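Notes from hallway chat w/ T.B., transcribed later so I don't forget. T.B. wanted the structure written out for a chain they're using in a teaching module, and asked if we could keep both sequence and structure tokens in one place. Agreed to drop them here.
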Amino acid sequence: MNKHRLLTIIAVGLLLSNIALVGFIVFRKPPLPPPPAGRPERGEGPKAIIIERLQFTPEQTATYEALIKEHRKEVRETDRKIMDIKQQLYSSLRNNDAPVHKDSLIHAIAQLQAHIEGVHYNHFKDIQKLCTTPQQKEEFEKLSHEINELFFPPKHPPQGQEPHNR
């Protein structure tokens, strides 16, 4: 093998490796950012935090998971009703229905949304009832101050806008 042929093979090999490297860099998915400190991995949500902070026993955890299942079912059903009414509301734009019809639909949505808030509140009362030890009751009291941020974290403002002060 002469020098010219050897250099050609090396150059082609380097070119192919560069193309592969650029392709890898361009087409790979960026890694997910790590969860904030003190938060569980993605998908675990507040459930893991509550179980850990309240130090639930396996029996309490099983009861809590059943409560979650029932809570989600009721919220999902109510959300479905809200979506159905919203569909009626926005389809009334095409029909030029009377404002009274619009107002009654908006009122129905508000009532269902209030129902969801009641379901959330009762869910937290059920969690509170699961707490049997003084430590669990004390930790639930602390946790109750964080419920809003834990279950409904603040949404990030659009780029370029400052968050509103509360």
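Follow-up for T.B.: The helical segments are 3-27, 45-53, 58-95, 99-130, 134-144, 147-151. Might be a good example for the class.
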